[in-house]
Structure formats: structure tokens, C-alpha cells
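User: Can you write out an input/output pair for a complex, sequences first and structure second?

Assistant: Here is one pair. Inputs:
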Amino acid sequence: MVKTEENNIYNTLQKESRNQPMDEEDYDIIRMVIHGSVNDYAILVNRYQVPVYNLFLRMLHDREEAKEMTQAVFVKAYEALPTFRFSHRFFSWLYRIAINMALNHLKKKKKYVGMEQLINMSAETDEQKSETDALMKKAVDQLKNQYKAVVVLKYYQQLSYREIAFALEIPEKKVRSRLYDARLQLKEKLEESGYY
Amino acid sequence: MWFRNRKLNKLKRAKIAGLITPDEEEVLNKMLDASDKEREAFLRLLDIENKLNSQLQTQESIDVSGSVMQKIVNGSQRNSTVSPLQNPFGGLYRPAPVRFAFIMTVGILIGFTFSWIFFAESSKPNTELLSGSMVASPKQGLSYVNNQAMITMVPYQIGQLNYLNFMIDAKNEVLLEVTFDESDFLLKTADYISADGARSSSFDPGSVYFTASGITTFQIVLEKKQDQQKAINIKASQNQSVLTMKQLFLEK
């Protein structure tokens, strides 16, 4: 029964991810850009810059870096456009580039966001939010990068399991398993912080 | 116990993922009823799932389209304004496969050039030994062909010096023996000019031995001590059986 429902969900996702008007529009733009109409690329940048920027913001916690990385992703994607496969959704492909860049960036800089910075970040962005939300965000930020990536993509970027699997280049089963482990780690962190 | 924990974890995962059936949920509740600690831990997990789902999805806005397009256009202009002499391929090798092919081609060309220089250098004729050989008349030589080997020897004479130039193409190793009377000839040099296979040669007074496999060229230079016609003997053998033997008379 579980498997049947899983299959239904998978089929729904597949249907959702195919032949959507937005995808077709993206494909048309990509074709035009590849054939020399460079300015049309701005449509894609305008369409996806906000989610990409917010992905970097969630991962890096630095607005300047997030802005620079967002620009870099779009330039990189433009350069790689001739290798784009039309069997993929453009924004999934873009997310794959972005998440890889974010993880590489974190790895290179070995950047661990300090507690003070996190609190400041929360104070800046969550003035109107409850303390609960802030504690949750802090716990998410303390997760290891591979767990943080799935949580950010699932809950903050609202990607499907299939899209996360594509972006991180791992099987869907692994996505589910990482998410479950991430929740267990979040529980431990929230318990340590006295949330429970 | 292990089986119970495994099943419990499986049901917990299914519940959180929203993929649990009513029957399974009933089993899960029964299992959780057995342990308050388990129930509390699971409720916390559910709470976390709900909290994560209810996180406000406010996205900070940004507009980088201008700067991105500027960078792209600048990049394109930089490519297009570069002199063909400086960058003859422009954006052509930007796609990875094309770039790979380009690098491979350049690599092959460089490798070929170096090979050519190396072999050209190593096979350069000994000008000291062969000086004037082009104007010398070819003398009686040796020619032998079967389906396994081709052996050719072309002699040239310049003054007192007799040049014996061997060209051999053999699938299997061929042993060449050149014998002469040391009172008639003085061995000046004997060496490989080029060889595909292993190089192995030895000299005794009055004889030179060398092996050849693949395409091999070998040169022997003998200085004649007397004016009269004197003989040299050449024997080629393969797998201890004689392929050919010949006696040549070298004149002054």
C-alpha cells in the first residue's frame, strides 16, 4: 500500500515536471540564447534570481556573498548553456549548479557560522518572527552541509524529492533518508538548546 | 528487539513522510504506547516536521539581472574583440567537448612534433662515415625475401672504406653474421642506425654479429687493408635455421 502511494506521488511529480508551460517557455528562451539572442537570457535571470539568491542566503548567511554567488551562477549557467539537456527542467539544472557552488564554497572556506552571527542574522531577518522559528533556523544552520542542503532545498526552497535528488546528484531514497537523519539531528540540537 | 526497532523506525519514517496507511498507523500507535520515551521522542520529531513546514517562506528579493547581463555581454565582447591572432578560436572551444577535442589535437600535434624531432635527430646519417656515399656506385649487394623476413644489404665504397648498409624487416628475430679475414679488413664501426626491436650486437676479430626484429637498419664500416679483391661472408639465420648465405667480393 505504501509503495502504491509512493508510486502515485512519483507519477504526479513526473506529470508536474513535464510539459509545463513555464518549462516550454524556458526551453524556447534557451534555444534563442544558444542561437545568439543573448539579451533573452535576462528573462531567465529575472525569473529565477530570487530563489537562487535565497538558496545562497540560507546556505552562506552572508548577503554580499549570496549576491556574488547568484551572479556567478547565472554567468556559469550561461556559459554551460550549450550543454543543457532539454530533458531537464532549467531551474532544476540551475539549482544543481547553485547547490554545488554553495557546498564547494563552504568546503573551501570551511566556514562555520558562529553563534553570534546566527543570532544577529535572526535578529535582522526575523524581527517579527517567534523565538521558535529563530531557534529552528539556528539548529538548521548547525547541521552538517549535506544535511543542511536537503533541509534548505526541501523546506525553504520547496523542492520535491525528485528535484532535490537531481540537484544533489543522489538517489531519491538517499534524499528521504538524509531528511530523516536531519530531523533526528535537529531534535538533538533543539533538546540541547533547551527548546524541549 | 532488533526487529521491533527496525519496524518502529520504518513506521516512523512513513508517518513523517505522510506515506503511512491506517493499519500501519494503528501498529505504530500500539508500539509507541508501549514506551512513553519513544512516544515523546516521536512527537518531537513530528513537531519538528510541522515547524519546518510552517517556516515562513519569505524570500528576500534581489535584482542582479543587470550586472549578470553586463558580465555576459562584457565576456562576449571580450571574446569577439580579441584579435584572431591572439585567440583564433574565440568562443568556439567554450563547450567542454570542443575544448577537450581542441586540447587533444594540440597535444597530438606537439607530441608528433617532438617525436619527429627526436627520430630525425637519432636517425640523422653519420656525415663523417657517409660523406660522398651519394656519388659512390652501389656494388654487389644482398637481397633475400620470404614471408617472414626481408633482408637487404647495399654496399658502398669510398676510398679504402667499405660501407655495408643492412635493412631488415623481420616479424621474428633474425641473426646476422658478417665474417671477414682480419688481415684483409679492419673493422672501423658497426652499429644500429635504427631498430624497432631489441638491439644486440657483438664483435670479434674478423666478425660482427647483430640481431634484428621489426624494421632495423645497421651499418658496418670496414677499411680495406689491401688493393686486391677480398671476400666477406654474410649469413642470416632465424630460429637456428639458415635463411641465406652469401659471399661478396669487395673491390678497391
